[in-house]
Amino acid sequence: MQKAEATILDLKDVTVHRGGVQVLYDINLSVERGEFVGIVGPNGSGKSTLLLTILGELMTRTGTVNLYGHAPATRKLYGKIGWVSQAASNLPKDIRLTVRELVRLGTVNASNMLSFFDQRREERVANAIRLVGLEAVGSTDVSKLSGGQRQRAVIARALASDAEFILLDEPLVGIDRNARNALLKLLDQLCHDEGKTILMVSHDLAAIRQTAHRMIYLEETIRYDGDTAKFPGLEELAALRGIRPVHDHEHGHHHDDHDHSHGPKEDE
Ligand SMILES: Nc1ncnc2c1ncn2[C@@H]1O[C@H](COP(=O)(O)OP(=O)(O)O)[C@@H](O)[C@H]1O
Ligand SMILES: [Mg+2]
User: Fold this and answer.
1) pLDDT tens profile 171-221
2) Phi (first) and psi of residue 205, to 5 degrees
3) How far is ligand 2, taken at its centre, from the CA of residue 97, in Å?
């Protein structure tokens, strides 16, 4: 599904304030169709804020955000953007919803809301469930799933919407290593086989590095943006942050669980 390079997201000189405080500044970022971009950075560095700004949920103080040639959050973008929020898999335990029902909710949009039954919708639901490998639990209550399965169900919901551009905020939190690897593999396949574009935030540097083609290190502004293979080692990162590392950790690749992910739990 190779298409000519097309910029689907473009941020220029973006500044964002929250609660009167500047949390992002000088953000210049563009993403091409088919890219898998990982965004890393410590807690409170503005990762979620950046995604919410791209989605149009937060206003920019200065600068512009352009999504498929539009300002964010316009009707024209309906269905194009899939959003898997931080703690998305912490679905309420007191509502009864099967996996299939959850995924079908992703297909509800302004144009089909009033249609009773739509064959194409059902196909999209089945296809999304298959893509994430949850066929066997389609009729199971979401509350009965493991953390990794729940996360995949939430991703299936985004896929069922036919979204071309999927933004995920910390999808690896709270799932075990096997589930994490399966999820990363799935996301990679979606990019390669389905032509999706993925922007994924994680503070699990080791995990994201296994999969993303391009990495961004964000700490109030973008301090690194480039090939994953050239992503700076921890010491260089510390220099980017102006902080000396306390321990001189290894610099090799694929060291499992060696990351920033064991900090305090985020409170949103
Ligand atoms: N609702 C809010 N109101 C005011 N400030 C906020 C709000 N949410 C987050 N912040 C602040 O914005 C900064 C960036 O937060 P966030 O984008 O959530 O970081 P990250 O996702 O990288 O952990 C932090 O300093 C945080 O305290
Ligand atoms: Mg966050």
Assistant:
1) 887 777 887 888 888 889 889 888 899 999 987 888 888 889 899 999 999
2) -60, -45
3) 27
How far does Cα 221 stand from its chain's mean position?
A: 18
Task: Name the closest ligand to CA 263.
Answer: 1
Tokens of 134: 């949850």
In ligand 1, the atom with minimum distance to the C-alpha of 169 is 21
**Is the dihedral angle over the CA atoms 136, 148, 185, 28 positive or is it negative?**
positive
Q: Is 177 helix (H, G, I), strand (E, B) or coil?
A: helix
Which stretches of 5-87 are DSSP H helices? 47-54
Distance 118 CA to ligand 2 centre (A): 36
Lowest mean pLDDT among 85-94, 132-141, 165-174: 85-94
Instruction: Report whether 183 contacts 149 (CB < 8 A).
Output: no
Task: Tell me the CA–centroid distance for residue 31 and ligand 1, in Å.
Answer: 23
The type of residue at 103 is V
Backbone angles phi, psi at 85, to 5 degrees: -80, 165
Check: CB of residue 158 under 8 Å from CB of residue 118. no
